[in-house]
Amino acid sequence: MKQSMTFIPTLREVPADAEVKSHQLMLRAGFIRQNTSGVYSYLPLAQKVLKKIEQIVREEMNKAGASELLMPALQQSELWQESGRWYSYGPELMRLKDRHNREFALGATHEEMITSLVRDEVKSYKRLPLGLYQIQTKFRDEKRPRFGVLRGREFIMKDAYTFHATNESLDEGYNKMFTAYQNIFTRCGLDFRAVIADSGAMGGTDTHEFMVLSEIGEDTIAYSDTSQYAANIEMAPVISTYEKSSEEQQSLEKIETPNQKTIEEISSFLNISKENCIKSVLFKVDEKFVLVLVRGDHEVNDIKVKNLYSASVVELATAEETKEALNCVPGYVGPIHVSEDVEVIADHAVAVIVNGVCGANEEAFHYTGVNLERDAAVTQYADLRFIQEGDLSPDGEGMIKFAKGIEVGHVFKLGTRYSEAMNATFLDENGRTQPMIMGCYGIGVSRTLAAVIEQNNDENGIVWPEALAPFQLHMIPINVKNDAQKELGEKLYNIFTDLGYEVLLDDRQERAGVKFADSDLIGLPVRVTVGKRAEEGIVEVKIRKTGESFEVSVDELEGKVKQILGN
């Protein structure tokens, strides 16, 4: 491809609204342009990389036994109502009505659509297992689109679904997909980890996220410093044990604590440790009020609360709801003398607190001398907090450390969550009707593009892994007005194109400095510069990843390029 004939609008300055490297470089190198918040056009260079990622995905999906199809992005509301997600998915689901006032959603995901498709066509165990996938644009109305294409409202996704007659078959299909994902992200040149995760609005159990390690990741990975254990922080169980103090119980006393709302403020005001404070957080769990207690130095894990109740929705109570349920304002909430309409549960660490401090459900007041077994009606104790660095690893090996990660893939065992709700059944070997058992597997294709750039860049621009580079060679005649340079550049461009290499020829009438800056910014693996020694048949070769450069004769160039890039 000749550079004058394609569309690569590079920028010299870093755009002010681009916070992270991938966003900055994709804008500067002419890969994307924003249309509106969270919505981007993918320009020719980005499109070439996306197609390479998609090809890797297709190859590994096909190897895992899945077949490609394409489903509508526009989905009727009735399907989502069948599964129950029309009401529970949340505001991220983009909803619209047609001219006949019928409700639709723009596909955020396709469990309902694929389930309805397969249930109408597959009736016997003889046609199972079945694996299907698509690569398609998805839509989610993100509250705060950010980081370029890492968190957008329109994005490209590969979603796959498997249907099985038995749980053993599901396990086999899940393992095949898990391996396929490992292969995909390895081939994309990513440093990643597969971590135990929460299934969220998807439903189901046994799920893993594939996380690309990056400081700008929005997810926190909890991992063992000595074993292979890794989990999303929200899913890591706490196995720490706690010892109860033998100190004598004090009497319960209400004291005035003006303007002391936070744990930090109350511990400082009373000169006590955070460990002796009881943090009380009010949630609405499927419309039921639940007061969750954790130790003052811990944080409530709402995912664990959700899983404890097998709930569809868990939300922090608003100030108005707190007033309704506890007759007080946030900051002074506590578990003593609460209404029977509010269930009180507590983390295991709270059970051993002796003579603690908690809110008094009255503004500007707290209780001291709190002993829960005497003073409050706690219905159950459970693991309800986020794991912390330094805690024991849940597998019993080593201590927990944290790392940041960008989620690029997610695999789920859905079980019968959708097939039962949508009556997707088959006849087994004995002629009995059974619900299909499902798996679901997603990859953020456009997000993978950005994640690769996050891990592969330097101060001059992108450094593409060879498997994903939009072109392999950047051929640069320094002065296209010089006949020898222009002719040799075009000759080499034609030779390497005929050999099957992807070559970008910079035939623009630009200064050498501009060409070199753009070349480093775009980041192709090998640059061949045709300069002053063109008449001698000598060119300069530069390897983008290492910065190494050297001169080579035209006769030796093919062998040198083959040595650098492989066959």
3D architecture notes:
There is one protein chain. This protein has about 575 residues and is of the alpha+beta class. The chain has three domains: about 15-235 and about 400-455, 2-Layer Sandwich (BirA Bifunctional Protein, domain 2); about 255-380, YbaK protein (Alpha-Beta Complex); about 470-565, 3-Layer(aba) Sandwich (Rossmann fold), CATH 3.40.50.800. Helix content is about 25%, strand content about 30%. It has 15 helices and 31 strands. The strands form eight sheets. Strands 3, 7, 8, 9, 10, 11, 12, 21 and 24 form a nine-stranded mixed sheet that branches. A hairpin with a 5-residue loop joins strand 30 and strand 31 (about 550-555). It is globular.
Number of distinct helices: 15
Low-confidence stretches: none
Q: Calculate the terminal CA-CA distance, rounded to whole Å.
A: 21 Å
Overall pLDDT confidence: 94
CATH-assigned homologous superfamily of the largest domain: Bira Bifunctional Protein, Domain 2
Strand content: 25-35%
CATH class of the largest domain: Alpha Beta
Overall shape: it is globular
CATH topology label of the largest domain: BirA Bifunctional Protein, domain 2
Note the main sheet. 9 strands, mixed
Instruction: Please tally the β strands and state the result.
Output: 31
**Which CATH architecture of the largest domain would you pick?**
2-Layer Sandwich
Mind telling me the C-alpha Rg?
29 Å
Class of secondary structure makeup: alpha+beta
Helix residue percentage: 25-40%
Number of domains: 3
